[in-house]
Structures are given as C-alpha cells and as structure tokens.
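Late entry, written up from scratch paper. The run itself happened at the end of the previous shift, but nothing got recorded in the book at the time, so transcribing now.
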Amino acid sequence: MLELLHIENIAVIEEADIRFLPGFNALTGETGAGKSIVIDAMGAVLGGRTSREIIRTGADKAFVSAEFSAVPANLPGLVETGAAPDEDGNLLLQREIGADGKNTCRANGRPITVSQLRQIGADLLNIHGQHDGAALLDEEQHQTYLDRFGRTEEAMAAYRKEYDAMADLLGRIRALKMDEAEKARRMDSLQFQISELERAELVPGEEEELLARRNLLRSGEKYLSALAGADYCLSGDEESGGALASIRDAEEAISGIRTLSDDLGELYKRLETLRCEAYDLAEIIRDKRVEFDFSPAELDAVESRTDQLYRLKKKYGATVEDMLEYLDRCRAELEAIETADDTLARLEAKLGKVQQAVTVAGAALTKVRMEAAAVLEQRIQAELRDLDMHKVRFAIDFAEKEPGPDGCDTIRFLMSANVGEDLRPIAKIASGGELARIMLALKNVLAEQEAVATLVFDEVDTGVSGRAAQKVAEKLAQVSRRKQVLCVTHLPQLAAMADTHFSVEKGERNGRTYTKVVLLDRERRKAELARITGGSQVTEALLRSAGELLDQAERYRETLPSANERPLAY
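Output as recorded:
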C-alpha cells in the first residue's frame, strides 16, 4: 500500500507530503491547481517517462519518493532487480531528475536504473489515466486485455514455439526461391570469389611471417654489417684476435695462481665462464651471417605477396583467417544454390507438418481464449449492471485470421447500448461516459487477478454525471475494500464516497505560484463538495446538500467491509 508520497520541485509544487490511507482516497481541486501533477509525480517515481521540463522553474533538480508498506520480498520486480523491502515490509522508492536530464533512482537506498524502477513500480501501483478509455477504441488492444484476464501465457508460449519454427522454415524457403537469372548471377559471383581466394593459397599466420621477413630484407645490408661488426669484435681477424682471444689470454694468465687463494680460484672460474659464453655468442653471430641469404629477388617476391594479401583483405576480410572463413561461407552458399532444388523440396515437405503443428497450437490457444472470453463477458456484464448500465450488452467476438505472432484470432469487444440494437464495435457506438464505465469495469475485473495493491484513477469520471456518477462512486468504494484506491475527480459523488479526502490548492507568494495538498476534515470536505457542486458561490443550501451527500456516502460505506480490515493481496 502507498503510505507516503513526497514531492519536491515538480512543476508548481515546491514541496508536498501526501500521506495516503487504506481504502478510498480522493483528490479534488480547481482545474489547473496541480492534481495531475501529483499523478505525474507518482508515474515518475514508478519509472515512467519524464523530461527536464517537469522541474520547477529556478530549481536545478526535482525529487520524488514513495513509501510502500506490507511489500513482500518475492515480487517479480524486486526479485529481478535484486532490491528488497526492509524487515518490516517497507519499501522506499526514490527518483531524482536533474536539469541535465540525468536520473538517480534508488530502492531502499540501493541504486537502480529507471527500467528497474519501472519493473518494481509495475508490481506496486497501477495508474488508470483519463485517456485510457480511448484504448478501448483500439481493437488491437482487445486481445491484450483478454489474454491478461485469461492468463494465456502457457498456451501462447506453446503456440509461439510452433509459429517461430514455421516462420523460420518459410524464411529459408523464400531464400531458396530465387529466379533463374538471379541464381545464375549469384553463382557467377560466388565462383569468381572462390577462384580468386583459392588461387591465393592462403595460409593462417602467413601475413605476420611475411611482414617480419619483409622488414628484415628491407634492412639486409644493415643487418649483415652489424653482424660482421659484432663478429670482428668477438673473434677478430688475421691481425687481431678480438675479445674472445683477450679473454682467453686473461684466463691463462690467472691459471698459474688460481690455487693460491679462494678468491683467485673464483676469479679464474668467472673468466672461464665468460670465455665460454663469449665463444657461444660468437658462434651464434657467425651462424646468422652464414644463414642470412639476402636476395633482391626475394624482397620483390615478399613485397608482391604482401601487396596481394592487402588487396584481398580490402574485399574479403581484415585478416587471412577472416578471408578463409569468407571462402568457407562462399563454398557453402554455392553448394546450397546448386542443391537448392533438392533442399527446397525437402523443406516444403517438412512445411506441411510444421503448419499442422501451428494449426493445432493455434486451436488450443483459441480454446483457452474463448473459455476466458465467456467468463470475462459475464464479469463485465455484472460490473456494468453495478455501474447503472443495465441495458448494455457486452460480447467478445472471435474471427479467424492467418496465423501470426499473436495467434490465429482477431478479437473485438462488441456492445449494444440499447435494447433491440445489434452488437457493434465499441468504437462505433460508445459515448465518452460509456467508454469510461466500460474501462472501469474492465480495470476492476483485471485488478482482482493482479498482484498490484494500489489503483490510481485519474479523472475516471470523464463524461459521467448524475446517477451514473453515483454508481461509479459506489463501484470505487467496493474496489477500495480489496485494493487501495486513489482517485482524482471533479464529481462530488466520488469525492464524498472517499474515506480520505485531499484538496489540491494553488496560490501565489512573492510573485511565484505554489501548490499544496491539504487533508480535509469533515467541515472542509463540506465546503469543497459545495464548491465542486456550485462553483465559487458557496451558499448555505449547497453546504447542507454537501453534508447530506457525505451522510449518504457514510451510510453506504457502512454496508461494506472496513477498509482497515481488508486484505491487501500482492
């Protein structure tokens, strides 16, 4: 249940704390006072879309938090995000919106993303906007409503498995059904590419070896000169013995005295080791001089091969390995085209079985939907009677269609507003008030199956008045005994029926507009109901009428279970 909504610097609200209670909570106020801003703030803290324009003029950021109680830790949104309520079941959601467009979101202090906040919010609170009734005019949404009510997830998953297999098979068949001219052009292209790559005789790792050899050959003279110099220094020539001979002489000079002391013996061993190491180095350098065969012709060949690989890489891949993979793909595609007729015949033979599986899964999904539709029709019809729409008939129409991702059914909600009238699409005959009440009936039925414990209705009374308004008020009071209900309204009947009544009031201070939210006692409720009924001229007669309306609403609420004792099922 939503306990506390805290708002800072959102539109005309500088700061407000709204402490909601169990049961039916109503918010009223003059048009433009900021009632919808409260709903926008709720949407923001639940992960809804916002923009920097929502920030109050002069402020560098906006902030909103919502505190919920009795929140179980196993809600899907919490499990998915890793957030959790505290040991008492309390959960605090926070969202800060910066002027730079950046958002900071938290759940009980744990940083989360906006999308994670949206996941959590979807399990806690449902907002029915003032334009949601228009969704009933979109027949594509009717199937969504029915599937939500009928919980068709299992049947839908089984159907989608078969449908996806069929869609994949059809895609492969379409890819094979190219015309002969296109097939010939593609085969010529593939054969040319395969031939060019095969002639190149590519070898993995070849390019790295070529580059290393090319660098060496390009520096051949410098290479040989350096080795010759090193060889001379170590081995000398006919006139000079070099470093190796000098080390040997030093070793022989020390040899005669090496036994006189341990230090001289150690010195002799070090000279011996140095001579051996110098001899090995001289041999290695000498071998490298002999092994290196510098040839301008080899350099030209390496340069030519490197250039060939460069040109091939521009067409077929960034490395030799990539080009070899491309070659394998070309061979496979060419083989597939050459054997396309056989493959096509095999796939088409398989298609019949796959389509039959789709038909069976689609029929199973349709059956589940029809069973759910029969129950939903009865439930909606009963709800509409409670909303003073006794003569309205509601039905769900099924029509077959080609299998698609969502099944084999076209689903439409139909209604007849008057006795003797045929059932017709809702969009063609429903008035604004009828749409609002049908959507309220649908929301009420769906809410009974959902885990959400708080329902928000933003001006659900649009297009409703008189006796119908009283029925809507009674319906919301009934719903509030199972769920917490928050309602923004302009109708005195709805406001009077609330267990808790807030007034959203706008004023000016120091040249700035400020909005505050005030909890009303009985006397102030009478004054607010009188204002809603009669406008700015509040008379004693309007106040007496408001008092009678409150008394009537209290008597009706006494017939219902206590809001404080109702179960809040998540």
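The radius of gyration is 42 Å.
(Scratch paper discarded after transcription.)
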